Amino acid sequence: MQRGLLAEFETPEAMLRAIKELRSRGYRRLDAFTPYPVHGLDEALGLRRSPLNWILLPFALAGAAGGYLVQWYTNAVDYPVIVGGRPAHAAPAFVPITFEMMVLTTALVGLVAMVLLSKLPELWSPVFEVPGFERATLDRFWIGIDARDPTLIRPIAERDLTALGARTVAWAGKERP
Q: Could you say which of 70, 118, 130, 168 is the most buried, measured as most Cβ atoms within 10 Å of its Cβ?
């Protein structure tokens, strides 16, 4: 959320009730800022599961295939060493390195994908300038309505948030023209 309306709540229950009520009134571009994970928040905001697992699956398979291929090529084709009657292509011996290459590739690609999907690093946001917002990391619960939400009409939204129990309501970012 780059700019929009922020409302402060004292308890997670009050915040969840407000989010559900706002969604029933048509608001869709909502965000929540909490000091700790709140059970049921994802469902209340209407968030879908992360696409990260489907993004990483092909890379995991490619890492495993690459690890297996390198072992097979070096042991069976490029430099076969026949010791103790072991065949040059001994698949069970390749399992540990294949698994480790899959984990390594997935971890590295997963880190990059997570940073990109999260739009990190975001070192500053207009939200940080709202008075009292620093308590979002301590003991307060904030709801943000993005300025791009077509349902957002500032006076009506401020009235709705106040009626839903918000302690404070503030605008983050530059005002609309």
A: 130
